[in-house]
C-alpha cells in the first residue's frame, strides 16, 4: 500500500505517453447482465522503463533436519536452489552441501544408515542423498502437492505422509519398490506427521485432528484419537518412546501420551499459553518437547501428569527437529538455523551456518510495501528492506522476526505488518531494524493467516483481515485503534475476508469462498460487502462477479475497483452498487496500485494499466515477460506519482512512467 497522495490524472496521462503507454478503445466482447466485459482486448505498447534493483528478498530458511552421527543435516525451503547441508558437530561448521533439483523446498527428512531421505513440495517427491558421496537420487513422484513428513521404521523402510490426499507411501531401499497405501483419512487432507514401529505406522491427521494406526501387515486403519481431542486441528507431531506414543496436538499444544499396547490407556498433558509442539524427542521414558510461539522447552517422564518447564532457549523459535546428544545436550533445527542447548547450565549455542555454499539466497516474495525511500518485502522469518534508488542509498538488509508478513502498510514513520501464524499485528519504525508485536487475534476467533492490511488514515485505524485456522470456517475483520484490538468473525458469512478498503463511515470487504486450509467451500461466489463503523455490522452484501476470491480492492474516485483470483478486474458504482464493467487481466489476479485515475496490476507475466471510469476501459500492457515467482498473489506498489515497483523473476524492479 502506498502512503502517498495520487497525482492528477492529466499529469499521469502525460507520463504514460512519454512511456509509450497510449491506449485504444476496447470492444465489448461479452456481456455480464448489461455490463460490457473485455475478454482479450488489450493494447501492446512499448515497454516501460524497468530498472533492476536486485533480489527482492534474501533468506536462509530450513524445513527440517536430522542427526547422522556427528553431523546435523539441514534441508532448505522457500529459497532457490534447494539444498541439504551437513553441520559437523566436531568441527563446528558446515562441511557438506548438495543441491536438490526441480523443487522449491523440502519438508520431511529422516535417515537409514548413512542415506538421507527427504520429501519436497510443489511437487511432492521423495529423494535419497548419499551423505558420504553426496549423490542425489529422485526416487518417487508422489503425485501429491506436498510430501509433509518422512520417517524411517526400525527395519529400514521409509514412510511418507502427503497433502492433499492424506496418503501414506512406503519405500523399500533394499528393493527400490514404492507402495502407495492410500488415504489414511477419507475426509481430510493431511498426514502431517507420522512415526513407524515394526508393526504399525501412526499417522497424525489434519486439518481436523485425527490419529490413525495403520497395520503394516494387514493394511487395516484404526482411528485411535481420544474423543476429547476431536475438535482440534492437527495431530501435528508424532514420536515413539518405547511402547509409548507421544503426539503434539494443535492449536492447543496439548500432549497426548498413549500406551500403544492399549490405546484406551492415555493421558493428555497441558502446555499453557502455547499453540504448537514443534520438536519432540526422548531417551528411555524421559520425553523432551519444544513449543511455539514461546520457544519453550519442556520435559516429562512417562506417567507424569504435567510437564516441567526447562527453559526458553530461543524465544519465538520454530523448532523443526529436536534430538539428544551423547553428552546430554539437546540439538535443535529451527527455521532460521540450528542451536545446541545445555539443560545443565541453561546455555544456548548457535550453530555457525556461514559458508559460501549456504548463504542467504533469493526467495519468493510474499508482500510489498512502498515506504518513502525504501521497499519492504515480506518473506520467511522477516522482511527485506531495499533502497528505491539505483545505485542504492543504503545496503539492503533483513529485519528478522518469527512468521511471515502477508501484507503491510505504513503511516507516520511506522510500518504495520500482518503476520502468519497466529494472526499477529506487528509494527516497526520505517527506518528501524526491529519489529515488535502490537496485538494478535484472540484464540476464540480461531484465525491464523492475515490476508490484507490497510491503514485507515481518516480514522487512524489499522484494518487487518484474516483467514481462519486449518479446518475452520469464516474469516474476520480486525480493527486496531492504537489501544484496543477488536475482531469481527463471520462478517462475510461462510467466507474468509480476503481484502479491505476504508471508506468515510466504514470498510469495504472482499471475500473468498475458501475458508481454513483443509475445508471444502460452502459458497461459490466471492462476496463484497460494507462494514459500518457505527453499527459494527454489515450494511449490505452482494456477489458482484462469478469470481471466487476478491484479491484486492481500491477506490478510484467514486468507483470501487476489485481484482479476482481468476484474473478479472471489475468496477462498482458505490452509490448504486451497480457493476459498471469487467476486464480480463490475465491468468492471475493480484494486488493493485493506483495513480490518479489509473489502476495497475500484474498477471505474473505482464504489467498492465487500466483507466478507471464509468465506461468500458482498455487494458494497456506496460511490460511483459516478467516471469514472476510469488509466494502468494502477485503485487504492484507505487510512490503515488510516477513510479511503480514489482518483480521480475525473483528480483525487485522499479518501473518509471516518466
Automatic annotation (TrEMBL):
Where does the secretion signal sit in this chain?
none
Question: Any idea what this protein is called?
Answer: Outer membrane protein assembly factor BamB
